[in-house]
Design a protein that fits this description.
Blueprint lengths: L9 H4 L30 H23 L2 H7 L5 H15 L3 H37 L18 H30 L7 H35 L2 H21 L13 H14 L45 H6 L11 H27 L5 H7 L1 E2 L1 E2 L2 E2 L7 H26 L7 H32 L9 E4 L4 H24 L6 H30 L17 H25 L7
Parallel strand pairs: 1-4
Antiparallel strand pairs: 2-3
Length: 584
């Protein structure tokens, strides 16, 4: 993997030397007022605590709502199980689609800072609305009596879902911008900061999981045992803390200027190349159109070197005889710069790598679905304690929290000695390792299920829908493996889609990365539907039944392991062929 990558070895870049590299940043970043920024006084790790604090508090608030939302819908709003599950999945899917809105606004018009600011305010209004709907008696139905549970009125539903979808819009505007804004604090042109940026992504994901751990344990307990008003009010307070944390670092942040609509620029390349389909691309790429200035014609973007792939798009940068004679190069729908053409090429090159992330997301979705179903049919007692099957997902979070510092402080320095790469592994190698670990995760789940079914058969429990006397603790390895896979693949994705995306499209590419989570859940649902359809033909019981003791959930896990293996092989091929972006 990554054999053709233009990776920068440590010794070549002089990383171990005390390199000055100029007083000002070389990546085009500016301060709040639009002036060039000094490296010494801005950005870097000085700015990161504010960004990481923002992300931790925001994720705590998000998971504080998402983790137990189905319980609120069924117990307080008195919805049925199917309706509640549908509403939760629809809302969750929306939360991973709205990042496209925030990303386009950030890259095209507002910049990441103001996009985060505006959508944080929307987020806070949504949280306050949700808290009020759970606190004021008139905004929720009365409690059930012995025989009847009164449904919520249209007005009560309206207030609740208005707040809920404001949260979806708010979190969508923040998601693709916070990680990119944090990475903006490190200068790509300065080797020392380039390495630190890789470390930032590790601690960024660490912050996410700290927030998730608190919300999935403490906040869920408060919601179930104290009350929903307080249970939703605490996340609202943490959103306010997130906003305060974010604005506190304004004076030392580095800012990247928005470069105009990336969708418009890509469309211009397609239109211009189609319009000049009959022109021949010169063999000398220096004859293609590019601005003479040091910086790119795209605001906030460095120039990108020409690549030899997808040469049909190079026609958009061919200067026609008419343009040459008139000297008018201003119509971007007829003539594009090499950098603008390369932007579209980069997005196309990243697509196969992006697509392989969908299968990984489908595997990851099992931690909250089939792993839980498997756990319900196992012995959940440890001494006098009973472990809820869903709570074992905490081991996934704990695994992430454990592996982040180990990866950052132990694995990277160790790997660096052998690979000579700044971050130990390239982004593509890192993601590939994670894909391999996800296969091991599915294999571990399948082996546990084989043993569970064997015990069920030995004890004549196949026809009985009862738990098998196999400790649920045997599930811990599959959760731990999934946590380790996240460290490699998901953080690797954050790095890859930031580093390899065009400078003026980083928020949009981060949003595309988040989209794999949504599509992975859809793929998981499709696989389940197909498996159920084909395995129940002819009156067969099927692999996945209400009574898992008479089904074959192990076959389902083997299927996912096989798909993951195939996905990894496709990924390796794509990664070997991938050519790195070269900015100037």
């Amino acid at each position: 993997m990554g054999s053709q990558e233009d990776e920068r070895p440590l010794l070549e870049d002089g990383l171990l030397q005390d390199e000055v590299g100029g007083l000002y940043t070389g990546d085009g970043s500016v301060d709040f007022y639009g002036n060039p920024v000094l490296k010494r006084n801005t950005g870097n790790w000085k700015a990161c605590p504010f960004v990481l604090g923002t992300e931790c508090c925001e994720r705590l608030a998000y998971y504080g709502i998402a983790t137990n939302l189905v319980t609120y819908l069924t117990k307080t709003l008195h919805e049925g199980n199917v309706s509640a599950a549908r509403n939760v999945t629809t809302w969750s899917g929306t939360c991973y689609l709205t990042p496209l809105i925030g990303a386009i606004l950030a890259d095209a018009y507002w910049g990441r800072y103001w996009t985060i600011a505006v959508f944080s305010a929307i987020y806070f209004i949504g949280m306050c609305t949700l808290t009020l709907s759970a606190s004021i008696p008139a905004l929720k139905p009365i409690e059930c009596n012995d025989t009847f549970c009164p449904p919520a009125t249209p007005a009560q539903y309206a207030v609740f879902f208005f707040g809920l979808y404001l949260i979806a819009l708010g979190t969508g505007g923040i998601k693709p911008c916070v990680s990119s804004f944090g990475a903006d604090q490190f200068d790509d042109t300065y080797p020392k900061e380039r390495v630190q940026k890789g470390s930032f992504f590790n601690w960024f994901y660490f912050s996410i999981n700290i927030g998730a751990l608190i919300s999935s344990s403490l906040l869920v307990w408060i919601q179930d045992n104290v009350g929903w008003g307080l249970g939703f009010g605490i996340p609202a307070v943490f959103v306010a803390i997130a906003i305060a944390s974010f604005f506190s670092g304004t004076a030392i942040y580095r800012f990247q200027k928005p470069g105009g609509s990336p969708l418009k620029r890509m469309c211009q390349v397609l239109v211009a190349s189609f319009h000049k389909w009959n022109l021949e691309v010169p063999k000398d790429s220096n004859l293609l159109y590019e601005t003479q200035e040091k910086s790119s014609a795209i605001e906030g973007s460095r120039k990108i070197e020409h690549s030899d792939e997808l040469t049909c798009l190079d026609k958009a940068a061919v200067i026609s005889d008419a343009e040459m004679s008139s000297g008018d190069f201003s119509n971007s729908w007829r003539l594009c710069t090499v950098t603008q053409v390369e932007e579209l090429k980069i997005v196309i090159r990243m697509f196969p790598i992006w697509a392989t992330g969908i299968v990984f997301a489908a595997v990851y979705a099992q931690t909250s679905t089939m792993f839980v179903e498997q756990g319900t049919m196992m012995d959940t007692s440890i001494g006098s304690f009973t472990i809820p099957p869903a709570s074992l997902s905490t081991f996934d979070i704990i695994s992430v929290i454990f592996w982040v510092p180990v990866y950052d402080r132990v694995i990277v320095p160790f790997a660096r000695r052998f690979t000579g790469k700044e971050r130990g592994f390239s982004e593509l190698q890192r993601m590939g390792i994670g894909l391999f670990l996800s296969i091991l995760c599915m294999l571990a789940a399948a082996i546990v299920e084989i043993n569970r079914l064997q015990i069920a058969e030995e004890l004549d429990l196949v026809d009985k829908q009862v738990a098998v006397p196999l400790s649920i603790c045997w599930q811990i390895p599959q959760y731990v493996l999934m946590g380790a896979a996240e460290i490699f693949t998901l953080i690797g994705q954050l790095e890859f889609f930031y580093d390899q995306s065009p400078d003026a499209m980083r928020s949009l590419c981060s949003a595309f990365a988040l989209l794999t989570t949504s599509l992975g859940n859809y793929l998981s649902s499709l696989i389940l539907t197909l498996v159920t359809y084909f395995t129940t033909k002819g009156g067969n019981v099927g692999w996945i039944t209400d009574n898992l003791n008479e089904g074959h959930l192990d076959y389902f896990f083997w299927l996912l392991a096989g798909l993951s293996l195939l996905n990894m092989l496709v990924y390796i091929v794509c990664a070997k062929k991938y050519k790195q972006k070269k900015a100037t």
